[in-house]
Amino acid sequence: MNPPAESRGGTGDPEMGRPVQEPLRRTSNAAQANALFRKNLTYQKRNWKTNCCLVAFPIVLCVLLVVMQFLINSFIGDRFKCGCKDVPNSNGVGTTKQCGLQFSNADEAPFCGIDRPYPWPSILQVPSPQYRATRSTEYPDLAQDASCRSADTCATTIPYTGTNKTAADALAGYLLGTGSLDLLNPQTYSLSSVVPGTDTIPIGSLLFESAFTSPRPIYILRPNCTNSKDNFNFTVNVGGGFQLSKDFACLETRPLWRENASSVNSMLFAGYRGGNERKEVNEVPAAYDFRRTTPARFDVNIWYNETFANRTSRGPPSLMRVTRSLNMAAQAFLRFKLGPTVELPLLFVKEMPKVGTQLRLDFSSIIGPLFYMWILGFLFPVVLTALVYEKQYHLRMMMKMHGLGDSAYWVITYFYYLVLFCIYMICFIVFGSIIGLKFFRMNSYSLQILFYFLYINMIISLGFIASNIFRNVRTATAFGYLYVFGSGLLGAFFFQNFVVDLNTDRKIITALQIIPAFATYRGLYEFAEYSFRGVYMNSKGMQWSDLNDEKNGLRTVLIILFIEWVVFMLLNLYLDQVVASASGLNKHPLFFLKFKRKGSKAKGAMSASSNHTSSRRLSRNFSANSKSLTHIDEGDKRSVGLKVTERSDVAREKEVAEELAANPSKDYPIVCDNLKRVYPARDGNPPKYAVRGFSLAVPRGECFGILGPNGAGKTSSINMMIGFLKPTAGTAYIQGMNIVTDMDRIYSCMGVCPQHDLLWGQLTGREHLLFYGRLKNLKGTELTNAVESSLRSVNLFENGVGDKQCRKYSGGMKRRLSVAISLIGNPQVVYMDEPSTGLDPASRYNLWNVVKQSKQDRAIILTTHSMEEAEALCDRLGIFVNGELQCIGNAKELTARYGGLYVLTITTPQEEESEVIALAKSLSPNANKIYGLSGTQKFELPKTEVTVATVFSGIEEAKNRLHIQAWGLSDTTLEDVFIKVARGVDGGIQLQ
């Protein structure tokens, strides 16, 4: 049965080689974006409490920081500043407050101003006795063994090497000099004639030499310590009336020849270890490579230990005692060249003057990176959970099925979060600055704005990518917050160690910063460091000029954030198309190249040709023989182990569908061509055939009903047609467009009432219809009238029900709204999956009237479990069992074809039951008793053996001899047909 030739037509599609019907009134991207923007704006107005909490969150944290800063300031008080005292005036009248070192204790002294720093001797850093080099199997040429460490008598060793061993030995002999200390001259520069050493850890400046305040003695390094005068007490006048009395002790020092520089280096490496207070030390004070030194050439390479100096911070540089080792080498060369009496004195070293300071700690900068990392990180789960929520509850798919394009969805969603997060950050920065947080005030605001803007864009795009991974809101929420806290902790306790260690290769740090969390942490770390240093040193924080500092990593961070923003957005758009998700059918991975699977055109042409030939052959066979036509699907046979036989009505429908697939007609908006859906084998179970081969052609103006038991494949069939599931085989054509390749175009002419209500609880019924109406290109008065009409048609207009939020609706009201949504905008094709579920009889009857009126100019496919609804609404019915249609026809045809029985019910006294059975047999020899209880019996009478008149006359005659209390005769109902077909298929009965 072919459609009329004059009804075929449509515009051509050169790629597919087949005519298509262009959807009516396609909505522009701007109109789609406008609809989604209005919906989101209304939705967020209803969620104002949540949004206010989100924006207020950083403000609350800033207040908490201020409170903590106040507590810290209260604790510090006047403890950490230069000491002061009320000193009597010279005239004896009153007192004057004076501040200075002389009035300060050990905690206060570092904060005093010093206009004339004291000159300190240049001292060599030597290892503590327990770490000095001793004899071992690797170095047997050392004179002392490890027992000296416990006795505190270990000498110290200075390794040396050189190209000319003779010259190197001479230079090594002059390293310690031949001078003597003038004990009668208590001046610092008198120590320049000897080599003083200390194992005291240095402090950050030379305003105070820690060696003079330590209980450990200062050593005088000598080749031997046989002179008792080498142990003495020395008093130094440091000014301001202060004198320091210090013990000096002789430290025996032995040069040790090594064959080459590599041997020296190996010895130093073997002697490297952790020392007291987690300071790293080496077993030797210094090492020398005199290289090619001659009397005419000074060439030296000096090893010195800087690891103890805590140079992993970019705060004030720590002290390193290097000058004395340089002076030792230079003086040794002069003595080697000019004689042993030559002196090259290094009298003293001194710090620059300093003003008085007071300890000021900015708590917001101290805890900065980790704390602000967590504050910024909370934006990530906000994006992620919102997108996964729309996916899990199929809200995005619902919007897409009613015409919302991907581009409009991502643009509006992106700009919504961009605006929200910008407000979040503006409130954070402004309020933090108002209450005086130095983290914001010290650093350049323009730099901060640029960093936060790039971060916001990066975190939104990162949330978009992550939403492709998750399907459940709870899982996404847990991951989001674990990411926030975990990334902050990793940044503070892992990544920061690489940043602060100046010996780490900057390329490694840059590579780590490719991880978004580490890039964010590095930016916050830079702001915190500069603001803390600005407060400590009374200077500005980070400015644009600081980006030129090679130690400043913010420039790299800004570049990385920008690149990741762009890459993540492009990657999200790609994954959204190719990853199977709740956003529709996935595309081929090379779709952006307009990739076509090889052989698709040829296969389509061959399929059309074979289908056309097959339909002719089937038509001839059907005309020659009215028996059922057999078509065996080998895959289905293997899966169920039964012979699958197509009925004549199903075969006829398949012929029409195949013909229309090859030669589409605008009078048939829906054509399903052998749709199949197979779920793959899993956990040892065989593949699941949800839909085995669904062929159907629905003309315009028809409502086709699909009946079937639960799990028969009804919803799976509809989900394939609406783009929710991808067919395993076969296809369908909606308005002439293929659901596999043209689904995005099909959405614009389609309406869907899903099995479960997909609604926003915060939106009203009217707002839902306004949104979906705009997606269907309705505007102005036309939109208003369509919404009013829809609300009235489903009884949601009276008493302001349409203006109540959907979360207050009953189940029946939500169902009626879903039906109204599916019909608004005059879609050409409508799918209704059990639309009357949960409705009371009055509402159900009204809903039926709405569907009847709406089917005049469109094709509707409806699934239901209500036989009454099927009879009232559907022009044709198909009973779906085990994933395939078992029969097709209108209600009367199906009852006539599969019914063929009358049901006779008779109620008599129980003792007359046998006579009633004889009565039924007299009416029809093949009468079958199907029920009997307490005198009430039911019989099935074949229509071919009885007539209604025969039954009536027989009952009237029987009343003369039987006590018939009640009786009735009924025809077979559609429900009886449904049960018979379902049971027959499950029992292996072939339906003809």
CATH topology of the largest domain: Rossmann fold
Shape: elongated
Number of helices: 32
| Global mean pLDDT | 81
**Whole-Å distance between the termini?**
20 Å
Helicity level: 40-55%
**Main sheet specs:** 8 strands, mixed
Q: From the alpha-carbon coordinates, what is the Rg to the nearest angstrom?
A: 47 Å
* CATH class type of the largest domain: Alpha Beta
Q: Considering the protein shown, what is the CATH homologous superfamily of the largest domain? A: P-loop containing nucleotide triphosphate hydrolases
Given helix and strand content, the structural type is alpha/beta
Instruction: Return the CATH architecture of the largest domain.
Output: 3-Layer(aba) Sandwich
For the record, the count of structural domains works out to 5
Segments where pLDDT lies below 50 for 5+ residues?
1-24, 311-316, 597-645, 988-992
- Beta fraction: 15-25%
Protein name: ABC transporter domain-containing protein
Membrane topology: Multi-pass membrane protein
Transmembrane segments: 52-72, 370-389, 409-437, 449-466, 478-496, 508-532, 553-575
Region (Disordered): 1-24
